[in-house]
Structures are given as structure tokens and as C-alpha cells.
Automatic annotation (TrEMBL):
<feature type="compositionally biased region" description="Basic residues">
    <location>
        <begin position="16"/>
        <end position="25"/>
    </location>
</feature>
<dbReference type="GO" id="GO:0032259">
    <property type="term" value="P:methylation"/>
</dbReference>
<dbReference type="GO" id="GO:0008173">
    <property type="term" value="F:RNA methyltransferase activity"/>
</dbReference>
<protein>
    <recommendedName>
        <fullName>Methyltransferase type 12 domain-containing protein</fullName>
    </recommendedName>
</protein>
<dbReference type="GO" id="GO:0008757">
    <property type="term" value="F:S-adenosylmethionine-dependent methyltransferase activity"/>
</dbReference>
<dbReference type="InterPro" id="IPR013217">
    <property type="entry name" value="Methyltransf_12"/>
</dbReference>
<feature type="region of interest" description="Disordered">
    <location>
        <begin position="1"/>
        <end position="31"/>
    </location>
</feature>
<keyword id="KW-0808">Transferase</keyword>
<dbReference type="InterPro" id="IPR029063">
    <property type="entry name" value="SAM-dependent_MTases_sf"/>
</dbReference>
<keyword id="KW-0489">Methyltransferase</keyword>
<comment type="similarity">
    <text>Belongs to the methyltransferase superfamily. METL family.</text>
</comment>
<dbReference type="InterPro" id="IPR026113">
    <property type="entry name" value="METTL2/6/8-like"/>
</dbReference>
<feature type="domain" description="Methyltransferase type 12">
    <location>
        <begin position="104"/>
        <end position="219"/>
    </location>
</feature>
<feature type="region of interest" description="Disordered">
    <location>
        <begin position="329"/>
        <end position="349"/>
    </location>
</feature>
<dbReference type="Pfam" id="PF08242">
    <property type="entry name" value="Methyltransf_12"/>
</dbReference>
């Protein structure tokens, strides 16, 4: 049968999706938050997979049952149906008086680190800050975010703030008031966030963490390490370096830095005592493409100076990855997924994925 010719304004043919309008290219010299907004607008909230490995790396923040079996599936946050129209204003100190742990995920993106922690510890309230309004918008659209707002006890609050802004920045005023109202936050995480900041803002971010944390509070950092394959690839490309000797611009315009142990010491030593700093190294083989990728991350667990560690596991501060480098056996990303452990309902988390589930290879 001859087809009726399509006219402008006709609805799209069945099965065919209307084309998304092309996003204009962001100029390379645009501010970094504009590049991150563009990144999230293009890639959406699923680029960074939920970081379930945090349950294993942060036993201090986990209840005993999760510590005993960190691989076990943790159900998404649900509403308890108590408060339907709760406001999403910044929480006041009195609202969080009953929380066991009040933490901050700085540079939270769309919540890939925040939600796995929140699901595993019902006693945790997490503040989530990112300077990308697009990322915070996506985070707030997660059903789990809406669910906790419709509950008797809120679990998190996300807002737009530049972690590297100078002291006195208005976007941090409410957070600072809350921290001082409860005697300081208990814990802060920086997950692949510092590497996105230039040197001076990164130093300001660490100083801000020191001001917000209570003495003895926990700072957990994981980031890209010098020698990571991605760094080698950027070094090989012309025009990727920034004015700072360790800075690179990725293709999408975001900043990447790669840290050595000395860099971490310089950043944290003034205000923090190192509990454990080490490298995590993984060889990830993609059989299809016949390439092995040497990924390298640095991880530090620090205590805010001025008091003994607030958290301990088994009566002493937990020390993980204490060796200078832990090289795990190569993981074949093309191989079939390993079977989930007995009793685990978390089957989906044992496929190799881009987000660093406990059963897979990457960050
Ligand atoms: C690699 S992503 C990691 C996101 C998240 N922590 C996670 O675990 O998936 C880096 C994040 O840092 C944010 N970021 C970069 N510079 C920032 C700054 N100055 N203040 C706040 N967030 C920043 C970016 O918007 C991005 O969401």
C-alpha cells in the first residue's frame, strides 16, 4: 500500500522516537559547573552506578548486620506514609537531634554514593551537596528522594553548593549553622570529587570539611590515583593539560586530577590524622576489545584532629587497605557474572558494571 506522505507537524510515526534537540556545545573555557551540568544533561543520572562497595569500605558507618554481610542487598528507601507534604527545607539541628550519624557527601552528583549508604544505615542522615544544579535536580527526582520526604523522619537533603567556595559562601551558611548546632558533623565522604576541583578550591574544600566535622569525626576519600590508565590516555593527547601541572580536561570538558600519596598528605595532614591511606589497583580485561585497563584509585580514611576517633569497629579504629598497593587478580569484564553469594537477594549487583558493585571491577 502506498504510504501517505508525512507533513511537517505530523506526530512521529509509531515506533519512532522524536529526535532530541541537539545541545549546543559548551565552550571549553566555560565554568566547570556548566561543564558538569552539560555532562549530566547528556548522560543522565545512570552514568555513575550506585557504589555498593562503600558498605564494605565503611564498616564504621554500618550496623552490625551489614558489617557481617556487606554484599547483602539493601532495599531502596521507602516512605513510611506518615508525612505526605513535608517541606524539603534545610534541616534544623532539632530535627536531627535523634539521628545517630549526620554526614555530608560533598560532590554528591546524582547520589551514587549517598543512597547505598542511606539504605544500609537507617540511623544515618546525609546532606548531599554538588555544584551542578542538573545533578541535584536528577538526585531529587530519584523515587527514593521523594519517598524519604513522604516519611516521618527525613533521611537526606540535597542542595546546590560549591565545595571549593571561599569561607563565608552563602550556600554553606545553613550547613554550617546545622553543624555548629549539633557539635559538628559525624562523617564526610568525598567520592571522586576532589579530582574535579582545581588545586586551590580542593584545598578550600578540605578546610571546609575540617570546619564542619566534629573532632574525632570521620573523613573518607576515594579518588583517581597517579598512574591510572585514564591519566596515561589524557597525557598522550595534545591540548588536554590545564595550566596546573597535574590537571587535565576530559573530552566532555570536566576537570580530572590524579593524586599521589604525597598530594593526599599535603591536603589532609594539617587537620586530619590518617587512619589508613592506600591504593586500590584493578586490571580490568575486556575480552571483546582485547584490552586490559589498569585502573588505580587512592583511598584515605581520616579522623578530624582534636579527639579520638568517633567510630570504631570491634573496639578499634578500622584500618583497611593499609598496604601501599593492593593488586587484585585481573577481572574479565566480558566473562559471565559470578554467582551471587548464598542468601543474597542482590543478584543485579553481581554483574560487571561501570559503577563498582562489590562483585565487579570498576570504581
Ligand atoms: C565523578 S563525580 C562523583 C559524584 C559522586 N560523588 C559519586 O560518587 O558518584 C564528581 C562530582 O563532583 C561535582 N563537583 C565538581 N566540582 C565541584 C565543586 N566545586 N563543588 C561541588 N561539587 C563539585 C561534580 O558536579 C560531580 O557531580
Amino acid at each position: 500500500m502506498p504510504r501517505t506522505p508525512r507533513r511537517p507537524g505530523d506526530p512521529p510515526a509509531r515506533g519512532r522516537q522524536p529526535r532530541k534537540p541537539k545541545r549546543p556545545k559548551v565552550p571549553r573555557d566555560a565554568p566547570l559547573d556548566v561543564h558538569w551540568d552539560d555532562f549530566y544533561a547528556r548522560r543522565g543520572g545512570r552514568f555513575y552506578k550506585d557504589r555498593h562497595w562503600l558498605r564494605r569500605e565503611l564498616p564504621e558507618l554500618m550496623p552490625a548486620a551489614v558489617r557481617a554481610d556487606p554484599l547483602r542487598h539493601q532495599a531502596p528507601l521507602e516512605s513510611d506514609g506518615e508525612a505526605v507534604d513535608r517541606s524539603d527545607a534545610f534541616p534544623a539541628a532539632r530535627e536531627l537531634a535523634g539521628c545517630g550519624v549526620v554526614g555530608l557527601e560533598a560532590g554528591c552528583g546524582c547520589g551514587a554514593a549517598a543512597f547505598p549508604l542511606l539504605r544500609a544505615n537507617p540511623d544515618l542522615f546525609l546532606l548531599c551537596a554538588d555544584f551542578s544544579a542538573e545533578a541535584i535536580g536528577i538526585l531529587r527526582e530519584r523515587p527514593e528522594y521523594a519517598a524519604q520526604l513522604r516519611s516521618r523522619a527525613r533521611r537526606c537533603h540535597a542542595w546546590v553548593a560549591d565545595a571549593g567556595a571561599a569561607e563565608g559562601d552563602a550556600a554553606w551558611a545553613a550547613c554550617e549553622a546545622l553543624a555548629s548546632g549539633i557539635g559538628g558533623l559525624h562523617a564526610i565522604t568525598l567520592i571522586f570529587a576532589l579530582s574535579a576541583l582545581e588545586r586551590a578550591p580542593a584545598a578550600r574544600c578540605v578546610a571546609r570539611c575540617a570546619r564542619l566535622l566534629r573532632p574525632g569525626g570521620l573523613l573518607f576519600v576515594r579518588d583517581y590515583a597517579a598512574g591510572d590508565l585514564a591519566q596515561k590516555r589524557l597525557e598522550a593527547k595534545p591540548n588536554r593539560r590545564t595550566a596546573e601541572e597535574d590537571g587535565f580536561v576530559r573530552g566532555e570538558g570536566t576537570l580530572a586530577r590524579y593524586f599521589s600519596r604525597a598530594d593526599f598528605d599535603a591536603l589532609f595532614d594539617a587537620d586530619f590524622e590518617a587512619l589508613a591511606v592506600g591504593f586500590v589497583e584493578r586490571d580490568i580485561t575486556n575480552r571483546k576489545q582485547k584490552v586490559t585497563m589498569e585502573r588505580r584509585w587512592i583511598q584515605g580514611k581520616y579522623v578530624r584532629r582534636g579527639a579520638p576517633p568517633l567510630f570504631s569497629v570491634g573496639g578499634r579504629a578500622n584500618v583497611v587497605e593499609a598496604a601501599p598497593a593492593v593488586r587484585r587478580p585481573p577481572i574479565d569484564a566480558a566473562a559471565p557474572p559470578p554467582p551471587p553469594p548464598a542468601g543474597s537477594a542482590d543478584r543485579a549487583h553481581h554483574r560487571p558494571c561501570a559503577g563498582g558493585c562489590l562483585g565487579c571491577a570498576q570504581s
